[in-house]
């Protein structure tokens, strides 16, 4: 819940990256002139690089409530991921945020629209830096380029798994270039660009940072990309995971609690940072996970479903007490409690800055890499007894206090291990897709909860606003 950071950019770069709320991919003509005036030194380009991270960080809804003017970055991601799985739900059935867990999101949903726009804001800012990279000192160009390409790939990886085929824009385009802006590109082609960007990033970066792109962050995300392809490249994913392990730059924290409250610890590979009490650098999602005592502005989000509670009871070990708590009939996430929280009081207290929280968004950590290593070795099979896979799996289990020797791992074992280890970290949705069980798991979950689910809901709708802007050039996903 510390520093960094992006505030330099937030103040200065608004001159040139402020986008028309209707055309977030395009700089306005007058702001394009401002860009030429702004990028005059290496320091200017570095501020621009920080600004790409700032787009991921997003704007706290407690600071700026107008969602039409201020993108939230990753701060709504739990709605589009955890809520659409069997992990969590909203405490209420009212409002657009409650649409995700019931599978009734439509093309006008403001949170889905904001996430789409936020990821394209990341892409726009990355493309902008790449257009002006020659302004930077020659000694820094490779790193700045690698960071921009890593972040562009990261945003496209989110988009392609949530929305399917999307416009692929790799340079700053003019406001009238509708064909580039609104033509949906086949998923395989988007993945090709993601892989190219991540490979370049991995070759140019080192592991000196956890709050900025690094070699291991690029390798880890690329491993997940290879595992997510229609025809996964398991060998390449295994090699990348082993490169991270063999670097000796990362390790599991001995105490699961420290993963989330000793920020940028040994286990963190890449995190988006926030700062407690700083309205320009904080986040509000931590406060929205509360329900029995409302610390946020709405009823609780990420209320834990009973079937996950059962998995924690059977497989959670010491992770359970650090992941959720039950207040009366409400199971609440506690991985990201705001500074000053004391959940032992009655009612629980969430400190003086709950809506300006500093808990980091963890994008990738070492335990995830170890479990991806198992997945890569398993290579789509039903089980494995491979010694290297057993070692990686056992390490995660041992840290959870589940020290019984593992002699074989099934696909179901791995999926449930990922569920309890990475719960509420926005991984479950992508895991279900990657393991090929999303339709069956979510159909059963919907029957249990009284929802209506069909396989077309595995993709979110392309925002209606963007289709309208495109004059119909941008097409909609089936079922919306």
Automatic annotation (TrEMBL):
Residues 78-227 form the SusD-like N-terminal domain. Gene3D superfamilies: 1.25.40.390. InterPro entries: SusD-like_N, SusD_RagB_dom, TPR-like_helical_dom_sf. One of its GO terms (cellular component) is cell outer membrane. Residues 350-480 form the RagB/SusD domain. The keyword Endoplasmic reticulum does not apply. It is found in: Cell outer membrane. This is RagB/SusD domain-containing protein.
């Amino acid at each position: 819940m510390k520093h960094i950071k992006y505030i330099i950019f937030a103040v200065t770069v608004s001159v040139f990256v402020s986008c028309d709320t209707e055309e977030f991919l395009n700089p306005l003509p007058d702001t394009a002139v401002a860009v030429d005036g702004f990028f005059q030194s290496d320091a200017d380009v570095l501020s621009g690089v920080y600004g790409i991270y700032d787009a991921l960080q997003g704007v706290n809804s407690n600071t700026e409530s107008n969602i039409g003017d201020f993108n939230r970055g990753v701060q709504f991601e739990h709605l589009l991921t955890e809520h659409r799985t069997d992990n969590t739900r909203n405490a209420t059935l009212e409002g657009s945020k409650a649409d995700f867990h019931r599978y009734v999101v439509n093309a006008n949903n403001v949170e889905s629209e904001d996430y789409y726009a936020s990821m394209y804001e990341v892409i726009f800012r990355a493309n902008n830096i790449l257009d002006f990279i020659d302004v930077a000192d020659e000694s820094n160009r490779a790193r700045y380029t690698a960071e921009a390409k890593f972040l562009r790939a990261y945003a496209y990886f989110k988009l392609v798994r949530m929305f399917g085929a999307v416009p692929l824009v790799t340079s700053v385009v003019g406001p009238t270039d509708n064909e580039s802006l609104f033509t949906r590109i086949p998923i395989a082609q988007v993945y090709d660009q993601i892989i190219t960007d991540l490979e370049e990033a991995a070759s140019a970066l080192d592991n000196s940072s956890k709050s900025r792109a690094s070699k291991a962050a690029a390798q880890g995300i690329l491993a997940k990309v290879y595992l997510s392809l229609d025809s996964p490249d398991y060998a390449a994913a295994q090699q990348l995971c082993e490169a991270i392990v063999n670097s000796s730059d990362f390790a599991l924290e001995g105490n699961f609690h420290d993963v989330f409250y000793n920020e940028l610890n040994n286990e963190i590979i890449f995190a988006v940072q926030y700062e407690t009490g700083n309205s320009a650098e904080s986040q509000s999602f931590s406060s929205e996970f509360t329900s029995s005592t409302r610390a946020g502005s709405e009823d609780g989000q990420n209320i834990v479903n009973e079937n996950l509670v059962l998995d924690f009871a059977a497989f959670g070990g010491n992770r359970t007490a650090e992941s959720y708590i039950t207040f009366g009939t409400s199971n609440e996430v506690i991985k990201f409690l705001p500074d000053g929280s004391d959940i032992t009081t009655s009612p629980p207290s969430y400190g003086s800055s709950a809506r300006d929280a500093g808990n980091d968004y963890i994008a990738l950590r070492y335990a995830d890499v170890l479990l991806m290593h198992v997945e890569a070795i398993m290579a789509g099979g039903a089980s494995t007894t491979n010694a290297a896979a057993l070692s990686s799996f056992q390490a995660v289990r041992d840290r959870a206090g589940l020290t019984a020797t593992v002699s074989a791992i099934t696909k179901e074992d791995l999926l449930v291990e990922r569920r309890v280890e990475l719960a509420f970290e926005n991984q479950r949705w992508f895991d279900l897709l990657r393991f090929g069980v999303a339709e069956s798991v979510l159909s059963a979950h919907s029957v249990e909860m009284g929802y209506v689910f069909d396989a077309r809901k595995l993709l979110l709708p392309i925002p209606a606003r963007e289709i309208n802007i495109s004059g119909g050039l941008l097409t909609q996903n089936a079922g919306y």
